[in-house]
Design a protein that fits this description.
16 helices; two-stranded antiparallel ribbon; two-stranded antiparallel sheet; about 5% strand; mainly alpha; about 70% helix
């Protein structure tokens, strides 16, 4: 504690010294006067000392916990872990969350409902990327390309052939899966940074093609008047349509969670996890790494395509500016911060990272600074994400030797 106090005090004094000319001295060149703002220096020093002290205390606690684990000291599970392991409390929490999502349009305004709908769209996209990155361990930076394929498939099919939403939903998913296979074949032998660079280029190629191929995608002007989904032929108002799309996204999110959970605990899911841990060892154990990679790309792109169809129907207008590299980075941040391979963590991170920037609009000039600070804190103190994915452990108990009977 004493050493941390001294280091924090030294950091505060150094920061006060470095920022002194900027924060304290104010020169008025017109009136040729100098104003001394000493109170700002005091506030900066106090804030630097407090933040530095908290940072060092948290790092000390983290290092102490690592020493205890390395020394073999077994600590009892925390209260939160005990509660999470209780199936009754888990079922109660899931029921409460489902009830909250069902009553959101009844309790909140139209704008809040649209915001949650956008968050659910990102949940579906992030769960698809979680298959590729979190389970299969393939770093993809151009994932927004599949999202664009789904959105433009519905817009173009409706414009040229009058295809409705419900027919375009599986078609958009199938087209996105086909593009996933198209991307998967050339990158089968690539790993790590090289795979990230190639997929980043793929995403930019899709965006540039959509922006310059006017005969196909109408270029930067985009496509407007995209019809919303129809619900049993009912004539709905604009507000009712958005509420219906919200409940559609709730259902699609639940379907995505169910399918991804079943895939994760299936044979192909175990192949993905083996591929993520060590591709060479997985191949040596007889796992078809080619099939595992291609299935991960195809299934991950499938959910992005469906989310793109819903996005186009909700927005009623799309253009290439909706599918930039920053969308891919945001979705990748959701997967990493939520927890690689963790479904609950990805859902929670998507809700936080989409809704939090809107909630911080009161700090319009500083919200991205706060957002970046949150990312740094998460990477330092919880590198495994908000919810660490539980890895299956197999315990082999040796059988007791049989006693031989003496004659």
């Amino acid at each position: 504690m004493k050493a941390e106090f001294k280091k924090s005090l030294l950091a505060a004094l150094w920061f006060m010294f470095l920022t002194f000319p900027i924060t304290v001295v104010r020169v008025n060149t017109i009136e040729r006067t100098v104003a001394w703002r000493w109170e700002r220096l005091i506030w900066i020093g106090a804030a630097t000392f407090i933040l530095s002290f908290i940072w060092r205390r948290l790092l000390h606690r983290k290092q102490t916990g690592r020493r205890e684990v390395s020394a073999g000291e077994v600590r009892p599970p925390s209260r939160w872990k005990q509660m999470a392991a209780d199936p009754r409390l888990k079922g109660l929490a899931l029921s409460a969350a489902a009830l909250c999502f069902l009553v959101i349009p009844l309790l909140f305004s139209w704008n809040k409902t649209i915001l949650v709908t956008n968050a659910l769209i990102y949940v579906v996209i992030a769960l698809g990327l979680n298959i590729v990155v979190g389970l299969a361990g393939q770093l993809v930076l151009g994932y927004v390309a599949f999202f664009a394929v789904g959105a433009y498939s519905y817009a173009l099919l409706n414009y040229h052939f009058a295809v409705g939403f419900w027919a375009a939903l599986p078609m958009g998913a199938a087209l996105a899966a086909a593009f996933g296979l198209l991307l998967g074949f050339p990158v089968l032998r690539l790993r790590g940074d090289y795979l990230a660079i190639v997929t980043l280029g793929f995403g930019e190629i899709i965006r540039i093609v959509l922006e310059n191929w006017n005969a196909l995608s109408f270029g930067p002007s985009g496509i407007d008047n995209i019809p919303p989904p129809g619900f049993f032929g009912l004539a709905l108002t604009l507000r009712q349509t958005h509420i219906a799309i919200y409940y559609l996204m709730v259902a699609l999110t639940l379907l995505t969670i169910l399918v991804v959970h079943r895939l994760q605990h299936s044979r192909i899911g175990r192949s993905w996890e083996a591929l993520r841990e060590d591709e060479t060892a997985a191949q040596a154990m007889g796992i078809d790494t080619t099939g595992a990679k291609l299935s991960a790309f195809a299934l991950g792109a499938c959910w992005a395509g469906m989310a793109g169809v819903v996005f186009a129907a909700k927005q009623k207008f799309i253009n290439p500016g909706n599918f930039t590299i920053w969308e891919s980075i945001l979705v990748l941040c959701i997967v990493v911060l939520g927890g690689m391979g963790s479904i609950a963590g990805v859902v929670l991170a998507a809700l936080v990272l989409v809704i939090l920037p809107e909630a911080l609009r009161v700090f319009a000039d500083y919200r991205w600074l706060l957002f970046g600070a949150l990312l740094v804190l998460m990477m330092v103190f919880r590198p495994g994400g908000l919810v660490n994915a539980r890895r299956r452990a197999y315990a082999f108990e040796p059988s007791a030797p049989e006693k031989s009977e003496r004659p």
